Amino acid sequence: MDYDEYIEECKKIKKENKILLDIFADYLKEQKLSDKTIKKHYENVDFYLNDYMLYEDAHPMQDGVCMIGDYLGYFFIRKCMWSTPGTIKSTAASIKKFYKCMLMAGKIEKDYYQNLCDEIKEGLPEWMDDCAEYNDPDGDDPFFF
User: Model's pTM, two decimal places?
Assistant: First the structure.
């Protein structure tokens, strides 16, 4: 895919993501969450879908269930200045809620959602530890070999 094709594909994916994010926002409203909480979940997922997943290639929402480990375990820690162990945990929760909503809307299959949940459960402690180490100016960089 050349650059122009990539840009066109990203535009198409962003348009679809907007629809999916609107479905997610409605789902969160039905859960009786506060506007502030809804906004935070929305922003966390929007960044995942429209920044990270379109960063190197044009990945649709469905690919995100398989990309969570790289995102929270590496990209988010290294590329997002606001990354802390707490933001890793809250971002994981937002993404998990989003994909639960996508499962309920028939946009992904149950196995994909379960794999995402399992990967988050298994990886979260390590991702949070790596983030704490990375943010420690006196510590070692866990990504430097």
Answer: 0.92
Q: Which residue has the tokens 């990203």?
A: 10
Contacts 24+ apart (CB under 8 A), 125-130: 126/73, 127/72, 127/73, 127/77, 127/88, 127/92, 128/85, 128/88, 128/89, 129/85, 130/73, 130/77
Structure confidence by residue, pLDDT tens digits, 66-122: 999 999 999 999 999 999 999 999 999 999 999 999 999 999 999 999 999 999 999
Longest CA pairwise span in the chain (Å): 47
Strands (E) located in 84-135? none
CA distances from residue 100 to 6, 17, 26, 112, 133 in whole angstroms, order as listed: 28, 15, 13, 10, 31
- Paired tokens of 21: 């994010």
Instruction: Reduce the DSSP state of residue 126 to 3 states and report it.
Output: helix
